[in-house]
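Progress narrative, work stream C.
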Amino acid sequence: MSLLPVEDAIAAILRRVPAPQGESVPLAEAAGRVLLAPVLARHDQPPFAASAMDGYAVRAVDIVPGHSLRLIGTSQAGAGFSGPVGLGEAVRIFTGAPVPAGADAVIMQEDAVVEGDHVAFSSQPQPGRSVRARGNDFTTGQQLVEAGVRLTPMQLAVAAAANAASLAVSHRPKIALLATGDELELPGTALGPDQIIASNSFGLAPLLAPYAQTLTDHGIARDDRAQLRAKLQAIFAGEPDILITTGGASVGDHDIVQEILVELGVTLDFWRINMRPGKPLMFGTRGKTLVFGLPGNPVSAMVTAIVFIKPALRHWLGLTPQPSWQLPLAGPTPPNSARRHFMRAQLLQTPSGPQALPISQTDSGHTSSMAHADLLIVQPEQDPGQRAGAIVEAIVVDAF
C-alpha cells in the first residue's frame, strides 16, 4: 500500500467531519466558544448623544470671550437633564451623560471658571466638540462580530454592549482517548525493567480539550485481544464523536488495535501517511464516530494530532483552517527524504523579528526535545535543505 500524501489525508478527514451544529449559550459561558451566528446590534450605541468628558454642555454659538452662561442644572450618567438648553444657558455634565436638547458641545471642566450660578470659559468650541453622537459606536442591526471566530474577552464585551444575553455557538464534539501497550505505566509508577511511562494522553488531552464538549481519558489498554476489545466496545457504547487511540496503529505482530477496530465495525479510510514523524496514522469511521489511530511514539502522536486532528476539530466548529506562518530560519535545515518532515523548532524573538530555530533531534520517541518545540517547520519532500535566513512554512504548536 502506497503512502498517502498529507494534503490528501487532510482532505479525506475533512470530508467525514459533519457540518457545524449550533446551540445557544448564555453570554457569561461563551468565552472560548466558536460563534456560529454573527452578533448584531440591537440598539444604537450610544443610544443618545453623550458627553465624552466631565464639563459643561453648551450651545457653541453662545461662547463669547468675557461673557458667562447661567447654570440651569446637571446631567449625569443614568440621570440626564430633562429640559432644553436655551440662549445663554449651560448644564453641568459628566462623562457618559446625555447631552441635553439644544446643547451641541461640551467644554471640559478645566477650561471653566464658576462663579455662583454662572460659568465662563477660556476656550471656544466648535459644534460637536466632546460629544459622542447617537450611534457613534454602532447602529441598530450592524454586524459587530462575524461568525466563525473564537470568542475573546474583547468580543464578549462588545456582545454585551449590543445587549446580547446569549449567543449561538458551535456544538463541540465529545472526545475519547485510549492509550494502548503492555509496556505503559502511568506517571508516578515505579518502573519495571521493560516498562515506560505513558505520556501521550497527558499531551493530547490539553491540546484537544479546548475544542471539546467533553474529553474522557480511558486510560491504558494492554495488548490483549479480549481486554482491548472490551475496552473499545465500552467506549463505542458511550457514542463519542471522536475516538483517538495511541499505539498499535501499525501492522506488526503486536499491533492489534487496527485489527480489532475493524472487527468492531470501523471502516478505514487510510492508515499510512507520507510524512515523518507519524507515518502509521490510521483514520476511519464507525457510524457517527471519527476514529483516529495515532502512532505510539510520543513525538509522532503529538505531531499527527496537530497536523490532522486539530484541522478536523476546527472544521467541526466552523473555523477556517489555521494559517501557517512564514518565518526566516535562525539556522540551516538538513536535506529531507521523500517524506514530508514536520521538524520541531523553537520560536526566537530577535531584534529583526521572529525566527524559527530548527531542533536537530528527529527521533520520534525523543520526548525532551518537545519541551522546546514552539513550531513545526513544514519541510517539503526531497527538500535539499535551506540556509539560515531562508523563509520557511511553520505551524504554531500551541495555537488554537
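Work stream C, second folded protein:
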Amino acid sequence: MAEVIIRRAGADDALIVAALHLQSARGLGLPPEPGYLDRVADVWLSERPDRPTWIAQSRGEHAGLLEARRIRPLPWPGRPDISWLHVGVLFVGADHRGRGVGRALVEAAIEWCRTTDVKWIRLAAPDAAAKEFYERLGFTAPGRLMEYDLRDPR
C-alpha cells in the first residue's frame, strides 16, 4: 500500500484545492464551467481561515481533499463558546480509492479539531456506503446529518 501524506492546505495551494474540487464535481457528472478554477480559488482564499482544508498525496500525486467550514456561533449567555465543523467535500481520486486516503483525511480533520474549540463535526453522507464509511470512523447519525462528537472521549 502506498504511503498517504496528509497536509493542511495553505494559501499557495488555492489552485490545487480548486482542481480537486473540479475533479470531485466532474466525478458527480457536473459539466465543465469556464472560470470555475479561478472562482473556487478566489472564494477559498478569501474565506480560508474558516475553511480548513486538507490535501492528500499518494504516489506523488494529489490523491484527495477534505474541505470544511468552521461554524462559530455568536456568544450566548450561559453557553460555552464552542464551534463545530461542517465537512462540505470529501473527495478521493478514482485511482486512489480503497487505499486509506479518505480515512487519513478524516482523521487529520478530527486531530485538528482536538486542538481547537471545535467540539463536533457534521456532514451529510450521500449514500449507504458513505454512511458505513463514516460509522467505521466513529460518526453517528442522530438526525439527518452524521456527527462526530469530540466531547465523547474515544
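The domain at 4-8+51-149 is CATH 3.40.630.30 (Aminopeptidase). No further action is required on this item.
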